[in-house]
Design a protein that fits this description.
Strand content: 35-45%
Number of domains: 3
Distance between the termini: 62 Å
Radius of gyration: 28 Å
Strand order of the largest sheet: 4-11-9-6-7
Structural class: mainly beta
Largest sheet: 5 strands, mixed
CATH topology of the largest domain: Immunoglobulin-like
CATH architecture of the largest domain: Sandwich
CATH class of the largest domain: Mainly Beta
CATH superfamily of the largest domain: Immunoglobulins
Order of helices and strands: HEEEEEEEEEEEEEEEEEEEEHEEEEEE
């Protein structure tokens, strides 16, 4: 199963960043429907009446909200019923405690099977003590002629799906834990780069190769990088490592490195490569502490320099001339770090007296071409 799963990973685009499925629920407003939902939190109460019915998802997550404390126990009362005819069906409810954008089997609050009219279902549940503070959702689903367990993302003919807002409090404060998803990725801003973290606390599953927590890094190769090496060797658990571009296409991945299995390591070609996300996660549902190490090799200057445009004098005592109105350029050091952006629409002579003597590079933004420039 492990090798089959990795084959799927190699063939398909990775869905990055979880979002709730909302194209769900019934296509009809007749018959089976949740009649009521009652949940009293530490702040607020859900007191929902379900009829008349709604086609698709009845999304109340922004308007009906209760607060629940991590570690506390609550009771939710649900009447699975009907808005017209009585037909057999099933029902289930979930709270997305780990806030990963999906309603997982371990987040189910309870199930029901029967034919309306039926007694109110009273389910007690405990919010996990490790729940992360923040906004999440409660989903309640009833499906006529369905079977358990229900798929919280299913579409069907008769029944109902309703989402409510839940605010989790008194749990973990993860404001100091960046990297949970692509919108909060940790920026790799030095080379070589080293970072030590743990996926055990404050990280959820947003990269669906495995159900384990994952951590995102943002890496933008500079123009002179040739090969980038990424390693999780020495991690305290069985890891999985992947590199994807901004569209979610796989650049590279590794499960077990030859020299440090079951940890992961990989290399990828950075030539002409744009920004990428480097994603650290565990194999299966594993998590733990790791040290991420990133290093790179540079291309040779002579193989990377293009003579299609000119800067003069070259070498120079500190003044740089460019053709007026010829576009914009990036002025880089030999490590590819941006020192200044030069816009010839504004000026064409640039003073560089404060630079140390050495070799610098000009990159034309429109074409990506590079030219060597030397200061005496």
């Amino acid at each position: 199963m492990k090798h089959s799963y990795l084959l799927l990973f190699a063939l398909f685009q990775i869905p990055i960043f979880a979002q709730y499925c909302t194209n769900v629920g019934p296509s009809s407003t007749v018959d089976s429907n949740v009649e009521s939902v009652v949940l009293t939190g530490v702040v607020g109460t859900i007191n929902y009446v379900g009829c008349p019915a709604v086609v698709g998802l009845h999304d109340l997550s922004q308007s009906v909200n209760v607060s629940l404390n991590a570690g506390a126990t609550y009771t939710i009362s649900i009447k699975f019923g009907t808005c017209s005819g009585n037909y057999a069906g099933v029902g289930e409810a979930w709270i997305d405690f780990d806030q990963n954008g999906s309603f997982d089997p371990y987040e189910s609050l309870g199930t029901w099977a029967g034919t309306p009219p039926a007694a109110v279902q009273n389910w007690s549940f405990t919010v996990p003590p490790s729940a992360v503070n923040g906004q999440t959702r409660l989903r309640v689903m009833q499906r006529e002629a369905g079977t358990l367990p229900l798929n919280p993302c299913a579409t069907f003919t008769w029944g109902s799906v309703t989402d409510f807002g839940i605010t989790l409090t008194n749990g973990l404060d993860c404001t100091g834990y960046p990297g949970d998803d692509q919108n909060d990725a940790i920026v790799v801003n030095t080379m070589p780069y080293t970072d030590t973290r743990s996926t055990e606390v404050c990280y959820s599953n947003n990269n669906y190769v495995y159900p384990s927590p994952d951590i995102y890094y943002y890496f933008e190769p500079n123009p002179l990088l040739a090969e980038v090496n990424v390693s999780l060797c020495g991690a305290g658990f069985d890891t999985f490592l992947s590199v994807v571009d901004m569209d979610g296409h796989v650049v590279a991945y590794n499960d077990d490195a030859h020299d440090c299995a079951p940890q992961s390591a990989l290399s990828f070609d950075a030539t002409a490569l744009g920004p990428v996300h480097i994603i650290v996660e565990g194999w299966g549902a594993l998590n733990g502490t790791y040290t991420l190490q990133i290093s790179a090799s540079n291309v040779g200057l002579e193989t990377n320099v293009n003579k299609a445009f000119n800067a003069y004098p070259n070498p120079s005592a500190g003044q740089l001339h460019l053709t007026p109105n010829s576009g914009a350029y990036q002025f880089l050091d030999v490590q590819g770090q941006l020192l200044q952006t030069l816009d010839t629409e504004v000026q064409s002579v640039f003073e560089m007296e404060n630079l140390a003597a050495g070799v610098y590079l000009l990159k034309e933004l429109e074409t990506g071409q590079i030219q060597k420039w030397q200061k005496l």
